Amino acid sequence: MTVARPKKSLRSAFLALAIAAPLLAACDSVEERVAAHYDRGQELAEAGESAKAIVEYRNAISLQSNHVPSRLAIAALLEEAGNLGEAVRHYQIAAENDLENVRSRVRLSQYMLVTRNIDRALEFSEQAYALDPEDPDVLAVRSATAYQLQDKEFALELARKAVAAEPDHAAANVVLITERVEAGELDEALSMTDSVIAVHDEDLSLHLLRLRLLELTDQQELALEQLITITEDFPDLGSAKQALARRFTQLGELEKAEEQLREYAEVAEDQTAAKLAIAQFLMRTQGMDAGVAELRRLAEEEENGWPYTRALASLFYARDRADDARALLQEVAQGEGATANEARVILARFALQEGDKEGARVLIDTVLAADTANADALTMRGALEIDADEYGKAIETLRNALAQNATDSRTQRLLGRAYLLNGNEALAADQFANATRNSDYAPDVAQEYVQFLIRRGRIDGAEAVLSEAVRRSPTNRTLLTALAQIRLQQKDWVGAETVANQLRELEGGGTVAEQVLAASLSGQEKYDESSDILRSLVADDETRNQAMSGLINTLLADGKPDEARAFLNDVLAEDPGNVQARLLQASIEQREGNADLARELVERVNADFPNQAAPYVYLARTELRARNVDKAYEIARAGVDATGALNLRLIVAGIDEQRGDVDSAIEQYQAVFDARPDSMLAANNLASMLSMHKADDPEALKRAQTIALRLRSSDVPEMQDTFGWTLYLNGDYRGALQSLKPAAEKLSNNPIVLYHYGMTLKALGREEEAREVLDRSAALADDTFPYPDGLEQALAELPEAPVAEPAAEGGGTTDQ
Question: Is the model's pTM score more than 0.90?
Answer without folding.
Answer: no
